[in-house]
Amino acid sequence: MLYIQVDDFNEMNHALLVRMLPDMCSVKIVPISHKLLASEYEDDPLSPLESIYINKGVNGVKNAIENTMGISVDHYMTVTNGAFDNVVDYIGGVTIAPDEDLYYNDPQTGEQLYGKKGVMMTLDNTYTRQYINYPKFADGAKKNLEVMHDILPRFINEMFMQADNLSNNMDTFFLWSLPHSA
Predict the structure, then answer these.
(1) CA distance 73 to 16
(2) Bridge partners for 113 per DSSP
(3) Residue 144's CB: how many other CB atoms inside 10 A?
(4) pLDDT > 70 fraction of the chain, expressed in percent and rounded
(5) Any alpha helices (H) in the chain, and if so which ranges?
(6) d(CA 69, CA 139)
(7) CA–CA distance from 123 to each of 33, 52, 167, 177 (Å)?
(8) Confidence band, pLDDT 50/70/90 cuts, at residue 110
(9) What is the pLDDT of residue 108?
(10) Which long-range contacts (CB under 8 A, 24 or more apart) does 158-164 make?
(11) How far apart, in Å, are the Cα atoms of 78 and each of 38, 75, 83?
(12) C-alpha dist (Å) from residue 42 to 57, 67, 144
């Protein structure tokens, strides 16, 4: 399954490849940068995934990941900010202890993110999204991918840990975004 995160302006932020391996009781998550250079077809020049998304949409990104990584992507979907926020609300937020001070005012949305290094904080929906996409990490986009890799398994685990019923959690997991199929 390929998840493509898009913002309120329908611009691609990041992507995730998620492989569910029931025989191994495991879920494998591979974060993918929107800056990854890829090509939709073998003879195409390399372009950042975000450019491929602008020009070819979700299907173009799917094809580029398949071609570049040599894998098959059977299902894919975009995840909007609103859908992402709904999932974070559903699981009650995400608790983190940042490994660096956080301070950012988003010039487009006016949203703000503040945090002290090593101090535990629970992030609501907007703050979780800002933390994943934080543009000022000392390690740059590499840290964004590490944060995604850390937070997303918590989402999946938390949805299945909810006391309601597994059927509702499965529905939530698969319906919180705009679905597309290959």
Answers:
(1) 11
(2) 104
(3) 22
(4) 85
(5) 49-69, 81-91, 125-132, 141-161, 166-175
(6) 24
(7) 22, 31, 26, 20
(8) confident
(9) 76
(10) 158/91, 158/92, 159/87, 159/90, 159/91, 162/90, 162/91
(11) 18, 11, 9
(12) 18, 7, 29
pTM here is 0.69
Q: What is the rounded CA–CA span in Å between residue 65 and residue 80? A: 20
Q: Which of 102, 93, 100, 12 is nearest to 52 (CA)?
A: 12
Q: Is the dihedral of CA 153, 158, 160, 161 positive or negative?
A: positive
Place of tokens 């939709």: 40
Residue identified by tokens 């979780």 is: 128
Report pLDDT digits (tens) over 125-157. 888 888 887 778 888 778 877 887 787 777 766
Rounded to an integer, what distance in angstroms lies between the CA atom of residue 36 and that of residue 85?
Answer: 25
